[in-house]
Amino acid sequence: FTPGAGKRMFWLKSRTHRKHPSLVFLRKSSGPVQNASKSQEPIALTECEEQIFSCLREVKSHYGLKTGIRVAGGWVRDKFLGKSSKDIDIAVSDITGEEFCNYIQAFNHSHHPDEKSSIGVVKVNPSQSKHLETAIMYLFGIEVNFNSLRTELYTENSRIPSILPSTSPKEDALRRDFTVNSLFYKIDTGEVEDWTGRGISDIHAGIIRTPLDPFITLHEDPLRVMRAIRFAALINPTEYQWTQNGKRVIHNDLIHAMCDPNIHASLQNKVSRERITVEYVKSMAMPNYSLPLQLYHRCRLFNILFPFVEDPMSPSEEELLNSLFSKFFQNLLPYFELIFPEEFKVSSELILSLSLVFPLWLHLQKKNPDLLHNRSHSVHSKKPKSLIWKGEKKKLYMEGELDIVSYQQDKQLNKFVMDWVTRHLRLKREDARTAYQLLLSAITLPEFIRKEILCTSYQGDEGERVKELCSIIRNNISAIGMWVYYASDLWATAIILGLTLHSQKHHGGQNIPFDKEHVSCLLKALKELDVHHFYEQAVILSGEEIMAALDLGPSPVIGVASMHLLEWQFRNSKATKQEAEIFVRNWFLEITSPNTRASE
């Protein structure tokens, strides 16, 4: 293409389609190079890969086949990146993948009888992104996919192409999403073919670009917007900024197309929510997960990733979300993960759930702030209006509410989070449960911690500050104990998350900075007092023992008594069972004596 020709083609294509909606458009095979560039860098094969490729060469020779045999795409890219890969996709010419597999099966039957080689065929299934029939065989314990070389035919209103067979590896290379995925390893010669002339150099330079004009490439399949971001992180595993020292991990022309509102509209209209979410999950599984988050912001994709349909984020809210992401994922989490590796066991699943908390928090701050405020980490109970004793077993019935102010019982917020994560984002319930636990732990962070870290300046000796914090924690031991109990093994991450959210005054966007070293003192004090293991604490009395102490049968009161007893335990760590029984009886008398009325 000459400069600007791609954009003109995109405009002409759209304009023509409005007049003739039945027309479809086929990629032209003209590209930046006439012949493939050949890499001088040798590809190191594993013993198993050598066995597989040797077998394929033997099959071709034995049957006198003229077909070309190439490994395509991701396997070649990963070899240049120094990554191991079992994703072997074979592209054959002049024959279908299934036909070539039949030759392999016949050859193995006579020459490798111990190598069981059944053939599976995956039919076209666009809903699962299977646009081409694929034959699958296990060779020497590795799954190998076989396809024929092809080119693609797209319609204007779908990202799902019609597949046309091709004998040209160049046509096949140019139809691929990015230059780094367009390489072929020619099994006959051991050479790497680069038909775009840029694939190898782009891998080395860490740049994502499209083989053809990016507007056309993205319009054909808008999901490539998401894939570009994921592959940018993949080929730049040590980069945490999308642009630095003049280098950009995505080519300027492609970034420009990725920001285009028409491409965004196509992404929303042509791509299923499930496919968008799958790509997002994969990007959050990258070790440099902060890089994709930056690119999602740069390309204005937050409202597509985190859809609140009736109330999308404004540009200022998108900026605030990006600021929170940057503060937490680039500045705070890596710092504390390095200093406290046992407490911050960061997994890709945790990163995914954490990334959902921030848009949830921003949305609820604006639309339903009551769900975020006046929450308590502790257990308190109101006296019931009346208690009715029935039957010989003295089963307790309650008239009126026994109010337990505990985020574990916050069903309204739980329902909102579960519904948004599972129904709107199409994520797993486990992801929703973790996001809910993190959000509630963050917003119920004990007030004394917020006050000490956010409102108290820290200067001077670290050891002295740790001692001061130990004293403060002892005076608030039941509050922090119950909070850690419910936050469970996420307690350390939830502290950092809670301080990040509470330090952000949403109204006006004012941010209260806090000292990371001050937070380190807090974490050291919690560890010194062994508070960080409180989530493993068991209630000293079982449910049966509480029922016996109160002379009750099964009742909702037993669960409430158990939580009050646990809170008491944190203040009385050396208490005996006898002392615990006395506490439970006294607590029960306190809530029942003024209101008890007998009824037979």
Q: Overall pLDDT, averaged?
A: 83
By DSSP, the count of extended strands is 18
Helix percent band = 40-55%
The strand line-up of the biggest sheet is 2-11-10-3-4-7-6-5
Please compute the radius of gyration using only Cα atoms. 31 Å
- Going by helix content, strand content and strand pairing, the class is alpha+beta
Low-confidence residue ranges: 1-33, 377-409, 596-600
Which outline best applies? Answer: elongated
Largest sheet: 8 strands, mixed
Strand content range: 5-15%
User: Could you tell me how far the N terminus lies from the C terminus, measured between alpha carbons in angstroms?
Assistant: 92 Å
Helical segment count? 25
Verbal overview:
- The protein is α+β, with helices and mostly antiparallel strands.
- Helices cover 50% and strands 11% of the residues.
- The strands form five sheets. An eight-stranded mixed beta sheet has the order 2-11-10-3-4-7-6-5. Strands 1-8-9 form a three-stranded antiparallel beta sheet. Strands 15-14-18 form a three-stranded mixed beta sheet, with no helix packed on it.
- It starts with a helix and ends with a strand.
- The model is unreliable at 1-33, 377-409 and 596-600 (pLDDT under 50).
